[in-house]
Amino acid sequence: MRNGLLQIFEESYRELRPRAPIPEIAVEFFPFANLNNTIRLREGKLRIRLSDLLEAAPDSVVQAIAHILLAKMYRQRIERARSTLYRRYISSRNVIDKAHLLRQIRGRKRIDTARGCAYDLEAIFEELNTRFFHGLMARPQLTWSRNRARNRLGHYDPAHNTIVVSRIFDHPRVPRSAVEYIVYHEMLHLKHPVKLRGSRRCIHSADFHAEEKLFPGLESAKLFLKQL
């Protein structure tokens, strides 16, 4: 275990709960597939797992993580300065690149099929590629989700170069334009990757929004999605 790691968490505990006795604390770095950090209270013992991507993080960043995790556990206010410090660190290009690499190595991307009962995502991609991108966009993996998710209609996973569309759209009663819009939106994420502005991640840039407005029937497609 990294030197001083346990002491950092004990000191953070004292700051947040000065009158409470410090419970037994176990901290370890764990090879998560993503940049995750977890905290659990089991039989009076705090069990904390930090992403092994953070093993080389400065003490100030680890202190910020300890504060955030313990504050969440005991439902206390998280200091904005510490939250900003942590976000700035994990949003650095070096950490983002390492996180993507680990997701490729450790993570599992469940790929089902691009050909659904009503719509073929690969065919839709190629049509959109010709209409809006001069056929120049390299096709990523495309797949329908395994369940009919309503909370995540579509997403682009850069670590696995995959566009996933919720299977809720694979139905004859769903307008083709709505499926095309979902795929087009995720193609724009492929063209316009997330950018960093200070400590903040810019997911939808001005260029992204400008190109999104080029999609015919944009408003009707968005209206249909709101009704789901």
Name its key features.
single chain, about 230 residues, alpha/beta, 3-stranded mixed β-sheet, about 15% strand
Gist?
The chain is α/β, with parallel strands linked by helices and 228 residues long. 43% of the residues lie in helices and 17% in strands.
Quick check: average pLDDT?
A: 88
Rg over C-alpha atoms, rounded to the nearest angstrom? 22 Å
User: Low-confidence parts, pLDDT < 50 over ≥5 residues?
Assistant: none
Give the proportion of residues in helices. Answer: 40-55%
Q: For the report, how would you describe the main beta sheet?
A: 3 strands, mixed
Structural class, by secondary structure, is alpha/beta
Beta-strand portion reads 15-25%
Principal-axes shape call: elongated
Strand arrangement across the biggest beta sheet: 1-3-2
Commentary on this structure:
The protein is α/β, with parallel strands linked by helices. It is 43% helix and 17% strand. The protein has eight helices and eight strands. The chain has helices spanning 5-16, 59-73, 80-90, 93-106, 121-133, 176-191, 206-212, 218-226, and strands spanning 24-30, 37-42, 45-51, 141-144, 154-157, 162-165, 195-197, 200-202. The strands form three sheets. The chain has a three-stranded mixed β-sheet, covered by helices on one side. β7 and β8 (200-202) form a beta hairpin. α1 packs across α2 and α5 (121-133) crosses α6. The radius of gyration is 22 Å and the shape is elongated. The chain starts with a helix and ends with a helix.
